[in-house]
Amino acid sequence: MALQIVMFPWLAFGHFIPFLNLSNELAKRGHKISLLLPKNAQIRLQNLNLYPDLITFHKLTIPHVHGLPYGAETTADVPSSLESLLATSFDELYDQIKSFLQNLKPHFVFFDFAYWIPDLALEIGGIKTLCYKVVCPAATSIALTRSPDKTTFMASTAADIVKPPPGYPSTTVVLHECEAKLLSFLFNEYGNRVSFYERSKKGVIGCDAIAIKTCREIEGTFGDYIATQFEKPVLYTGPVLPEPKKEPLEDDRLSNWLEKFKPGSVVFCAFGSQMILEKKQFQELVLGLELTELPFLVAVKPPEGTNSVEEALLEGFKERVQEKGLILDCWVPQLKILSHKSVGCFVSHCGYGSMWESLVLCDCQLVLLPRPMDHILNARLMEQELKVGIEVEKDENGCFLKESLCKAVKCVMDKESQIGCFVKENHRKLKELLSSPGFMSNYIDNFIHNLYGLLVE
User: Fold this and answer.
1) Prediction pTM value
2) Regarding beta strands 343-348 and 266-270, do their DSSP bridges make them parallel or antiparallel, or are they unpaired?
3) Are 193 and 413 in contact (CB under 8 A)?
4) Coiled coil: which residue ranges (predicted)?
5) Which of 101, 135, 162, 291 has CB 3.0 to 4.6 Å from 225, enough for a Cys bridge?
6) pLDDT tens digit string along 279-326?
């Protein structure tokens, strides 16, 4: 029996794409998917729909909320300060979603931020709900097991049964870099009269099962921890990455620039589509890369208070690095750049998607420069547990200096460096496991088997 599944992700491309990647894997096995997306997101993601006969994009009309720019549909259209208003708009999709589900009567609805989906599914009847987490399970464990007084984890006895790995949150300790920001974010309003904490907690409590975009070999401890806390199934989808394509860079400017350099010599730095650096930190970043004396390619958003990266550069910098440094503030094809023979090092912000891409789809040395809350947890996993990269040292305020960035890059890029050889070999072994024949597909097959099991409960 083919399953009929509705996917309803949060209004961010960092959520749309993992939901679509999973949809492709399910459709590959004959299941029918309805992916609910705003119009502009449909246009941008159309080419990633590998099974248009089985995956249908259903257009959402995003309600306008006072204070939002007209036409805003996703987090890419608003500054972070307005995301709470976007969440209010998101919740006002309730009637659209209700009408759609009543007409379709799917077997499952997969959601993440729409905490009201489980209650709606119960009202309609006959629909199972899965809360699909596309961020690291460590962050999920913090976000979902905080007590209302914001100071302690819930169910401490259960937490003691499954100890998170060293360097990760325990029942009493949270990484100091992200604690204050995390608490502020969790308990601030995220939508109309609902906090992010309440949004996340209600969805997980009400759903039939929790799905996590990871594999047990890497983050199974946290899956067990979450399952113990909420006493419900935790299903693993695996990383769910698209098949790498052996295609050349279509951007002649990038291709011609990279071809100038020796294999494995270029440092590539990219910080995702939403992260914006402070101007001073951007300057430390590019100055640190200059100090390495290696060729470097940087793709970041314009720093805070500027209209372009060029505007933020210190006087004389562009002239000094014009032969070996390329700094862009536009979208670049990250995977194709990482797979280019000239690229030998990836300086990453440690977003969850970038983390998995760097582990599975590239052979580069990894330098970790995490910024927001959950990205720090991803960096700890990669450096302390998997030992596949080096994190850049920061001060007590979470800021880095050009010297510390240069030191980390040289540490992994120096062919005589014991640490560099060590993390490279660990990365090679892990990639070999994760990309071994049948590894990823077995996760999807088991995931589908578990979905059928939920239907008969």
Assistant:
1) 0.87
2) parallel
3) no
4) none
5) 162
6) 999 999 999 999 999 999 999 988 988 988 999 999 999 899 988 999
- Comparing CA positions, the residue from 37, 33, 10 lying closest to residue 22 is 33
221 SS3 class: helix
Cα–Cα distance, 191 to 117 (Å, whole number): 15
Q: Which residue type occupies 148?
A: P
CA 92, CA 117: separation in Å to the nearest integer? 12
The C-alpha atoms of residue 319 and residue 302 are separated, in whole angstroms, by 19
**Amino acid at site 12:** A
- For residue 399, what is the DSSP state? -
Is residue 215 within 8 A of residue 443, CB to CB? The reply is yes
Residue ranges with strand state E in 101-254: 108-111, 128-133, 209-212, 234-236
CA distance 63 to 71: 9
Closest by CA position to 274, among listed 11, 10, 12: 12
Q: Give 143-153 pLDDT, tens digit per residue.
A: 666 555 444 44
Q: Which two tokens stand for residue 452?
A: 């059928």
Neighbours of 341 (CB within 10 A): 14
Structure tokens at 176: 């100091």
Quick: pLDDT tens for 34-66: 999 999 999 999 999 999 999 999 999 999 999
Residue type for 412, please?
A: V
Question: How remote is the C-alpha of 365 from its chain's centroid?
Answer: 20
Place of tokens 């536009």: 330
Helix axis angle, 137-144 relative to 373-380, nearest 10°?
A: 130
Torsion sign, CA atoms 190, 194, 196, 199: negative
| Residues whose CB is less than 8 angstroms from the CB of residue 187 and which lie 6 or more positions away in sequence, other chains included | 150, 195, 196, 197
Q: Which residues pair with 133 in a beta bridge?
A: 212
CB 39 within 8 A of CB 59: yes
Q: How far is CA 456 from the centre of its chain?
A: 32
Residue entry with tokens 């976007």: 86
Q: In this structure, are residues 123 and 20 in contact, taking their beta carbons and an 8 Å threshold?
A: no
The Cα–Cα gap between 30 and 26 comes to: 7
Residue pointed to by tokens 């969790």: 186
Q: Say how far apart CA 292 and CA 337 lie, in whole Å.
A: 20
Q: Three-class SS of residue 307?
A: coil
- Which one-letter DSSP state was computed for residue 420? H
